[in-house]
Design a protein that fits this description.
Residues 346-502 form the MoaB/Mog domain. The protein is α/β, with parallel strands linked by helices. The chain contains eleven helices and 33 strands. Helix 1 packs across helix 3 and helix 8 packs parallel to helix 11. The chain binds ligand LQZAQKY5 and molybdate ion (MOO).
């Protein structure tokens, strides 16, 4: 959340009130014993890991996306105040001094995993629980029963989220969380075995392992002479050509002309290109091949397996099968590879005002040409999609949207600028527009009627904030791009890539760059996507002001820069090619 993992938010807030912060759990600074044995065991492990000098212990869950320093300061301050505010039930052991300050959320509920404890009280409480039933599997509430507490209403910062569905339903998510939301909400495409050339654009579902060594047999790397034993060599025939099998053997002291790619004959232990030898003919005797001085240490024989042995892993799962890797798979003797994808997509525009791009002037009042649909195929291809056909169009009617979402309208499109029936099925429908909540926006209700699962509904980014991703009941995915052309391109290039990654398991390294004075371009509370142009000095120049209703501000900018929300001057930005 807020552009960073929730744990980071919580750790930042904790670090603002103490220099001793311990994260607990598998992968944390310490871990409950045994792992996953519950929050009370986790708190005990965290307490044991804290330095002795610590006398106030902040207990905080990792799933509080809105937690801030002020909330923790308020809890600490409340614990230091006299007992007048204490609302817990005094017990025989208690002296009336509160053991802990406990946060109360906006709904008036105790938030047991947001509290500040006096260390001795917490240690004593854990000891008591340890003696009576143990810590494992205990509800965290057990810590607080019978303690004198100071309750502090902290409101929104106590909100916790347990599932991505809760995160998504609670409002626009941070751009940095889009990948996680998609990973959780989208089911990867099935892996299929395909011939290497037909699989280009797919993502390896299993490592690519060579069936054959490269080269498969010893061959010549150059046009020249196959040689046997030490020279000079008596020239014998016939010439060895590529593509012929089982050449006869060469005996020591002889040479045979050989072409690039031809099998090296048995008995030959070296090949020299013709530039490195001299061929002399002495009267009527056989020609003699002599190595020139430059041939010392040279050998143009490619032994079998010189480049790789059979069984060598040429690429890991998650790598995109690009044309080069497809070719390498063929070199390695593979007749099929296991891939997910390519992810087939179709673009469908919406909006009754939108006419085909080639509509002649004059346009009727209020109508505009489609200035983005026909371009999105290229943007989506850059993002990793295989885009089928020209864009279709879905009229602004409830019925048309229902038919599109249910699959009744097909998902392909013809030049008629309408989604036609009987079109090939696709994996993803990329819809342009209708993501808002206006009078003509029928997408959300249609998704609801169809029983689609909303995977992402709004992202804290500008442009493109209203984007939607939904998993349709028939297995297709809907990627809803905001209608403003620049917003549509931005979301297609960024979220589009993330959709391909989630559906295919694609692993990609982000291209990161540093940009001068980034803090002047960043905004609090939401990420920005800005046109980026090469600055001629190896860096990128970003345009800070963009209008979203057209693509004019993107002209000459081959990339988009993703500026994280509240980015500092030196934070890296991700550079995404959009074209
Ligand atoms: N009350 C609010 N209204 C709007 C908000 C908001 O936050 N609150 N956000 C605005 C932004 S930003 C965008 S982006 C849009 C997203 O809404 P939709 O996805 O429903 O987009 P539409 O309303 O369908 O279209 C928006 C705009 O883009 C033009 N458009 C649509 N398709 C095309 C196309 N293929 N070629 C050219 N232009 C297109 C359309 O005519 C509209 O002018 O919502 C805002 N409203
Ligand atoms: O999605 Mo709109 O900007 O963000 O034009």
């Amino acid at each position: 959340m807020a552009g960073r993992p929730m744990l980071e938010t919580v750790v930042r807030a904790a670090a603002a009130v103490s220099d001793a912060v311990v994260t607990v759990g598998p992968g944390g600074d310490t871990c409950e014993e045994p792992p996953y044995s519950g929050p009370v065991a986790g708190i005990a492990a965290g307490l044991a890991a804290l330095p002795e000098r610590v006398d106030l212990v902040v207990v905080v869950a990792c799933d509080l996306p809105d937690l801030d320093d002020d909330t923790l300061h308020a809890l600490v301050a409340a614990l230091g105040r006299p007992t007048a505010e204490s609302t817990g039930r005094p017990t025989a052991e208690s002296t009336g001094r509160p053991a802990a300050a406990l946060a109360v959320d906006a709904g008036g509920r105790d938030q047991y995993l947001l509290a500040v404890w006096h260390r001795p009280a917490l240690a004593a409480r854990l000891d008591a629980l340890r003696r009576f039933g143990g810590l494992g599997g205990r509800p965290v509430r057990a810590l607080y029963d019978d303690e004198v507490l100071t309750r502090v209403s902290v409101g929104a910062p106590a909100r916790d989220v347990d599932t991505w569905a809760e995160v998504v339903a609670s409002g626009p998510i941070a751009l940095a969380d889009v990948r996680a939301a998609l990973r959780v909400g989208l089911v990867p495409l099935p892996a299929t075995a395909r011939p290497p050339l037909a699989a280009i654009g797919g993502v390896l579902a299993a490592p690519l392992v060579a069936a054959d060594p490269m080269p498969r047999e010893p061959v010549s790397a150059m046009d020249g002479y196959a040689l046997a034993g030490p020279g000079p060599w008596r020239l014998t025939g016939p010439a060895l050509r590529a593509g012929t099998s089982a050449p006869g053997g060469l005996v020591a002291g002889t040479a045979a002309p050989i072409a690039t790619g031809a099998l090296v004959p048995v008995g030959s232990d070296r090949v020299l290109r013709h530039e490195l030898v001299e061929v002399t003919r002495d009267g009527s005797g056989p020609a003699v091949v002599t190595a020139l001085p430059g041939a010392a240490g040279q050998d143009d024989l490619r032994p079998a397996g010189e480049d790789w042995a059979a069984g060598r892993e040429l690429a890991e799962a998650g790598v995109t099968l690009d044309p080069a890797l497809s070719s390498a798979a063929l070199s390695a003797g593979l007749t099929s590879v296991m891939v997910r994808g390519p992810v087939r997509a179709i673009v469908v525009t919406t909006g009754d005002e939108v006419l085909p791009a080639d509509t002649p002037s004059p346009l009727p009042p209020g109508r505009i040409r489609d200035t983005v649909g026909p371009l999105l195929g290229g943007v989506l291809a850059r993002a990793g999609f295989d885009c089928a056909g020209p864009p279709g169009h879905c009229p602004d009617t409830i019925d048309a949207m229902d038919r599109l979402i249910s699959g009744a309208a097909g998902t392909g499109a013809g030049s008629a600028h309408e989604v036609g029936p009987g079109q090939p099925t696709v994996d993803v429908i990329v819809l342009v527009g209708a993501t808002g909540r206006g009078v003509a926006d029928h997408l959300r209700p249609a998704l609801e009627r169809a029983g689609a699962t909303i995977v992402l509904d709004g992202v804290r980014v500008r442009p493109g904030g209203s984007q939607i991703v939904a998993a349709l009941p028939d297995g297709r995915v809907l990627l809803g791009l905001p209608g403003n052309p620049l917003a549509a391109v931005s979301a297609a290039a960024t979220t589009g890539r993330a959709v391909v990654d989630s559906l295919t398991g694609r692993e990609r390294a982000a291209v990161l760059a540093r940009v001068t004075a980034l803090d002047r371009l960043s905004a609090p509370g939401r990420a920005r996507i800005l046109p980026a142009r090469p600055d001629g000095a190896g860096g990128w120049a970003l345009s800070g002001r963009v209008r979203t209703a057209h693509l004019a501000d993107l002209a000459g900018a081959p990339a988009l820069a993703v500026v994280p929300e509240g980015a500092g001057a030196d934070d890296p930005v991700e550079i995404v090619d959009w074209i």
